[in-house]
User: Which sequence fits this backbone?
């Protein structure tokens, strides 16, 4: 019975996550169309789903305190509710019970990242890479942490490795573009932002920052076009730059 009960809880997490994702995506759509009341209603649904998930995982842990996946999944739910310290506690317990859990190291790194503990995040991402060197995600995440520590060269190396492992990794191209932009390598940044856009044509951030890189290269027409597209996709700040430079 216990195995069936725990399986049910794992399946329940999947259903919670899918429902929460649906609420979240629908809320984002309403926010973009300025249906703020509707967006708030859907975001509230996200919170309710993850709160119920935490309650179920807590019950599972009470029944079996050695259930590593329950700690890991409860950590995920806390993470989505922005309880990053609580998530770290659960991921740490999951790792203690299962030291080979790449997901727990990676996600604990994400929680530390969101608490601006970039050095601690790098330690966790590095361990995840050691355990699974063919997993592109920890390389990309470690690159972002390095970029926040202004180690742009190290960040580019990690993003490049993530892209080598997964050539369709749009976020890695975007992040590498930002690192190159920080190093004033504007042509290289534009190439990466362009690839990110090709893989994800709805990426407003990539249009926005490609526009800034073009502006730094005195390509005002190209910059204005990108900022216009970024604004259409919901990046309101892009219209400020259009207003300032594109009249």
Assistant:
């Amino acid at each position: 019975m216990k195995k069936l009960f725990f399986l049910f809880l794992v399946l329940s997490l999947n259903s919670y996550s899918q429902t929460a994702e649906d609420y979240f995506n629908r809320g984002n759509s309403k926010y973009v169309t300025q249906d703020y009341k509707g967006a708030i209603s859907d975001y509230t649904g996200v919170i309710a789903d993850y709160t119920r998930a935490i309650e179920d995982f807590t019950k599972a842990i009470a029944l079996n305190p050695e259930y590593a996946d329950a700690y890991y999944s409860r950590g995920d739910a806390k993470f989505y509710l922005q309880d990053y310290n609580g998530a770290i506690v659960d991921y740490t317990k999951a790792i203690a019970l299962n030291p080979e859990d790449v997901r727990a190291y990676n996600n604990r790194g994400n929680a530390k990242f969101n608490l601006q503990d970039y050095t601690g995040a790098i330690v966790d991402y590095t361990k995840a890479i050691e355990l699974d060197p063919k997993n592109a995600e920890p390389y990309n995440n470690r690159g972002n942490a390095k970029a926040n520590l202004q180690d742009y060269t190290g960040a580019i190396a990690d993003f490049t490795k993530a892209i080598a492992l997964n050539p369709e990794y749009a976020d890695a191209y975007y992040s590498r573009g930002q690192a190159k932009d920080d190093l004033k390598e504007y042509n290289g940044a534009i190439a990466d932002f362009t690839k990110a856009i090709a893989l994800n044509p709805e990426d407003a951030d990539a249009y926005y920052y490609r526009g800034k890189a073009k502006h730094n290269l005195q390509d005002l027409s190209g910059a204005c076009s990108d900022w216009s597209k970024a604004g259409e996709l919901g990046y309101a700040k892009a219209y400020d730059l259009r207003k300032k430079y594109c009249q």
Notes: DSSP finds 13 helices and no strands in the chain. The two ends are 70 Å apart (CA to CA). The CA atoms of residues 170 and 200 lie 7 Å apart.
